[in-house]
């Protein structure tokens, strides 16, 4: 066969193989693409189903979730751990301190001293003598122990107060989280109640539209009455959508307050959104976390002042040294007397006393600064006491006023419902106008919304009362 034919035959076979493998590769890519799309679809469906799976959340569960997941609560717990580390640092100053050191020095030029010749039996001549060796190595270990240091002792006494301060701060942080979560939780209930109110009003308006339409079809009502009632119905449907958005926004706000993913659907349990009469409304100053925290802060400032005053006291410590020293004309490490290197050990034990005498009045100035900080903290304590007393008095007044408002609005709702029923009957009999019917529906809707707002105001005042009493954690044990 001609070489040229052989070449073209092999080239054709090679091209066929390329086409064959290309088709296989394209088919594999298509399969991978389809599998990728299927996997993405499954993941999206799974995540969407998870996001749509509602979680029932009562107030206790909402607060517990927030205390576990909210960043402020976690940071407060980290502060307590930090306090433990600070206590360990202060305690370490009273424990023995052991350190070691080693060095090697090369002296290319040794210092020479001039000595009188009489020392060497050469009177009248001065002789220069070099001291030391070219190489010197040493290894040393030192142990120190504080025997008396008033600053250390004061710091150890203040360590317990420091941890208690962070514990109170964490408790205050939890109370603030509970307050925000409870407020957001009640606002969700308010939005849901508003939605139920507008849904009820929407159903009543639909009934009115049907009545007007029946009368219009039978020639007993005007077309303008039917059109007006239809306009009112359409407006209510638009308002209902706005309230639906309000419910969603309030739920998102609650999920943010407790640190829950926004995509997670929640459902509040069916409970009565009504005021809870508190068993007692006496003021409890000793239980207020804000005051406890400020008192603990003043205690820490006093310890700080004592620590500054401790600078006037002398300090006493023990020390002990032990080491090895090697000298010679060659590198000492690894060499001995046979190489001209001589090693010797050394040790020392002693007492170190430091007596402050005069530092220009710096310590006295720091003591004065500490005293000013204490006085400022005492002013903050008095101001906080007044603020909490004011919050307590306002909360009690709001509870009493809102309770009266709730009772009045409950009566208004009952009367508005009776008026609406009578107006509907009179309208069917031709004894009332469409304006009277629509006004009656609006009055009932307004009365129901006013009742819902009064209930929310009562619950918020209840939160503030418990906060002013230092009993906010008991809120989660009360029913809505």
TrEMBL record:
Single GO MF descriptor: porin activity
Cellular compartment(s): Cell outer membrane
TM region(s), chain numbering: 12-29
Protein's UniProt keywords contain Manganese: no
GO cellular component: cell outer membrane; efflux pump complex
Coiled coil: 66-93, 367-457
Keyword Zinc-finger carried by entry: no
Keywords: Cell outer membrane, Coiled coil, Membrane, Transmembrane, Transmembrane beta strand, Transmembrane helix, Transport
PANTHER family named in the record: OUTER MEMBRANE PROTEIN TOLC (PTHR30026)
Family indicated by similarity: Belongs to the outer membrane factor (OMF) (TC 1.B.17) family.
Protein name: Type I secretion outer membrane protein, TolC family
């Amino acid at each position: 066969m001609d070489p040229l034919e052989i070449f073209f035959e092999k080239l054709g076979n090679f091209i066929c193989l390329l086409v064959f493998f290309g088709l296989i590769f394209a088919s594999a890519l298509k399969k991978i693409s389809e599998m990728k799309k299927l996997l993405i679809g499954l993941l999206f469906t799974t995540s969407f189903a998870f996001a749509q799976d509602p979680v029932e959340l009562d107030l206790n569960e909402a607060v517990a979730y927030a205390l576990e997941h909210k960043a402020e609560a976690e940071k407060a717990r980290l502060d307590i751990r930090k306090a433990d580390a600070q206590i360990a640092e202060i305690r370490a100053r009273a424990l023995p301190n052991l350190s070691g050191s080693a060095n090697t020095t090369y002296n290319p030029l040794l210092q020479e001293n001039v000595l009188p010749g009489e020392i060497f039996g050469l009177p009248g001549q001065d002789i220069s003598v070099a001291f030391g060796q070219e190489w010197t190595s040493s290894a040393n270990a030192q142990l120190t122990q504080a025997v008396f240091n008033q600053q250390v002792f004061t710091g150890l006494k203040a360590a317990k107060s420091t941890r208690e301060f962070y514990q109170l701060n964490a408790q205050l942080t939890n109370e603030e989280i509970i307050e925000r979560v409870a407020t957001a939780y009640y606002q969700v209930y308010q939005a849901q109640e508003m939605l139920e109110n507008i849904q009820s009003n929407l159903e009543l308006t639909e009934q009115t539209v049907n009545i007007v339409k029946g009368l219009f079809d039978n020639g007993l009502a005007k077309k303008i009455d039917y059109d007006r009632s239809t306009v009112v119905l359409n407006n209510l449907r638009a308002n209902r959508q706005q309230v639906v958005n309000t419910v969603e926004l309030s739920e998102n706000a609650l999920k943010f307050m407790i640190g829950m993913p926004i995509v997670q659907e929640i459902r509040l349990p069916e409970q009565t959104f009504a005021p809870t009469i508190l068993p007692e409304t006496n003021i409890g100053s000793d239980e207020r976390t804000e005051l406890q925290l400020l008192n603990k802060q003043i205690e820490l400032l006093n310890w700080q002042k004592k620590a500054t005053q401790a600078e006037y006291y002398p300090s006493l410590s023990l020390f002990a040294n032990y080491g090895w020293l090697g000298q010679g004309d060659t590198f000492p490490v690894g060499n001995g007397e046979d190489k001209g290197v001589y090693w010797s050990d050394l040790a020392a034990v002693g007492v170190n006393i430091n007596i402050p005498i005069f530092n220009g009045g710096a310590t006295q100035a720091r003591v004065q600064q500490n005293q000013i900080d204490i006085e400022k903290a005492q002013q903050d304590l008095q101001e906080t006491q007044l603020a909490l007393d004011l919050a307590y008095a306002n909360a009690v007044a709001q509870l009493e006023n809102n309770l009266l408002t709730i009772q009045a609005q409950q009566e208004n709702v009952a009367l508005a419902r009776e008026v609406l029923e009578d107006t509907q009957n009179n309208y069917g009999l031709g004894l009332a106008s469409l304006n009277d019917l629509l006004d009656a529906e609006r009055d009932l809707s307004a009365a129901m919304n006013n009742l819902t707002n009064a209930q929310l105001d009562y619950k918020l005042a209840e939160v503030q009362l418990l906060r002013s009493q230092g009993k906010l954690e008991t809120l989660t044990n009360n029913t809505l």
